[in-house]
Design a protein that fits this description.
This protein is mainly α. Helices cover 80% and strands 0% of the residues. It has two domains: 67 residues; 31 residues. It has three helices and no strands. The longest helix is centred in the C-terminal third of the chain and has 36 residues. The radius of gyration is 31 Å and the shape is elongated.
């Protein structure tokens, strides 16, 4: 878990550095509005910290859940249900395709609700 924390701390640090650069350029461009630039810098740093903290909590929760035996069983059942649903869908789709292909035969039968195009007089 220490590796995860370090990785997300690095993300926060990088965004904070980037935020400082943006704030510096903003300050340079605005001249007299230095106070606003400092405030913007602090706002960006706070936002980066908030994002890092939220991501850290999310990944901690995910890690804790993955280690939980009941959660592992729930995940196994969910994956099995997904596999079953995909299998049934593929099977039913295959059956429908076979019925439709089988109902048209060699292509000489009349299409549903219409005449056989080969018997239409084209004069």
């Amino acid at each position: 878990m220490a590796g995860t924390n370090e990785a997300w701390n690095e993300v926060g640090d990088r965004f904070a550095t980037w935020g400082r650069r943006v704030a510096e350029r903003y300050k340079e461009a605005s001249g007299a509005a230095g106070g606003a630039a400092r405030e913007s810098q602090h706002t960006l740093e706070d936002a980066a910290r908030d994002v890092t903290d939220a991501l850290d909590r999310a990944f901690t929760a995910l890690g804790d859940t993955i280690r939980d035996d009941e959660a592992k069983q729930d995940l196994k059942e969910a994956v099995r249900a997904l596999g079953d649903a995909i299998s049934v869908t593929v099977s039913e789709t295959g059956d429908q395709i076979r019925r439709r292909v089988g109902s048209t035969g060699s292509g000489s039968e009349a299409p549903p609700g219409g005449e056989d195009p080969s018997s239409t007089d084209k004069t």
